[in-house]
Amino acid sequence: MYCNTFAASNTYLYNKVLFNLKSMKLHRNLVFATIDSLNLIFNDNKQADKVLRDTLKRDKRWGARDRSFIAETTYDIVRWKRLYAEIADVNEHFDRPNLFRMFAVWATLNGITIPDWPQFEATPTRRIKGRFDEYSKIRKLRESIPDWLDELGEKELGKKWDTELAALNKQASVVLRVNPLKATVQQVKEHLEEAEIKTETVKGHPHALRLIERANVFSTEAFKNGWFEVQDASSQKVAQILDPRPGMRVVDACAGAGGKTLHIASLMENKGQVISMDIYGNKLIELKRRARRNGIHNIETRVIDSTKVIKKLLGKADKVLIDAPCSGLGVLKRNPDAKWKLRPEFLETIKETQAEIIDSYSRMVKPGGQLVYATCSILPSENEKQVKTFLKREAGEEFTLTKDEKILPSKSGFDGFYIALLQKKE
Ligand SMILES: C[S@@+](CC[C@H](N)C(=O)[O-])C[C@H]1O[C@@H](n2cnc3c(N)ncnc32)[C@H](O)[C@@H]1O
Questions:
Q1: What are the mean pLDDT values of the chain's consecutive 10-residue runs (426 residues total)?
Q2: 305 a known binding residue?
Q3: Is the CB of residue 330 below 6 angstroms from any atom belonging to ligand 1?
Q4: Closest ligand 1 atom to the C-alpha of 283?
Q5: What family does the database annotate (predicted)?
Q6: Is 260 near ligand 1, meaning CB less than 6 Å away?
Q7: Could you tell me the domains of the chain?
Q8: 49 labeled part of a ligand binding site
Q9: 0.90 exceeded by the pTM?
Q10: Angle CA(276)–CA(278)–CA(279) in degrees, nearest 5?
Q11: Active site (annotated) includes residue 254
Q12: What sign does the dihedral 228-233-237-238 (CA atoms) show?
């Protein structure tokens, strides 16, 4: 699924803009590592995050700046693939000479002097700048997005699409969620400051700390001891709106690797029961590993391998969270290769899955209980329209919409999310 924000966040942390690009000298092994990564992402359809994780392991001598260069440049070229390909006048399949041409576009637009390596022979620097100005007048090229997705975004969001698309092409902030079972926000802030990592609190998000500059927080003692998780501020809103209380029985029906489960369990102070489900057992194994680090003991995991798993819990949960599989369009900032991997057919299928999931899993809510339906998409067809049609179907007739929040990246500065809170009749 495209909306696994946890997976997308790991190598993103290396994207620390430490270097002054203009005065930068290109190092052959770093450029080659970038080209190799792009080759795997573009031509072998590999996930950018996983490719970078492997590439960065390649040379132990690489320091933080080298790793930042590879990760940042790769993500940048992935983000601007269409624009750079048009400027470089190359088509898919991107062979190595084509990838070097796209790299030359990236370097030229960032004011970096192109070295006299054979791969960069006859790079038309002036033509690159001229083409950039010309193509910047056309939205789908300027914002580097496939035609079908640009048309869909405009159809669904109208004029708002312009602003949201531009916001989704900005670099994502790194936000931490402090685990109140282990530490306070102030303790984490001070601990990170000792490691020269500066953070700031985020208004409206009581457990959030935003990194002022990117850093690899996973290597800190605080992370290893479960004091915090990396979780975008918009994603932190989901458990806030679900509002689980100690002693309740809460079902996280699409739990994945447990970003929201961990938040829910911490708000429940380890009291009561969280049942975390997913159709993929491996994700739930990762969830359990994270729960141990977080000092959480009230989570039970269940793989959804038959309808029985849901039936056993019919009408038994105080609260159910459906963090539905979705297009992931709200998290393009941290997962830019989703632009190129997403297909119209996938979107149609996932919308059907969302409707089936909400019909089926909502039955686990007990009378008087609550349901939260959330996605990391900004498309109304995956969000408010899904809720509206659910409420009209038989499965939704006992529910009413209490409130919903459409978190737009342009307004929040964080990921795009949709969160609806529904109440079941007594
Ligand atoms: C948005 S992701 C969940 C992210 C997770 N809640 C978190 O906070 O880290 C959606 C999840 O739904 C799972 N999924 C897909 N189809 C499902 C289904 N029919 N029933 C339950 N889970 C499903 C995917 O495996 C994926 O982990």
A1: 41 45 81 97 94 94 91 96 96 92 95 91 86 96 97 98 97 96 98 96 97 92 97 98 98 98 97 98 98 97 97 98 98 94 96 98 98 98 98 98 98 97 97
A2: yes
A3: no
A4: 27
A5: Belongs to the class I-like SAM-binding methyltransferase superfamily. RsmB/NOP family.
A6: yes
A7: 5-143 (no CATH), 175-230 (3.30.70.1170), 234-424 (3.40.50.150)
A8: no
A9: yes
A10: 155
A11: no
A12: negative
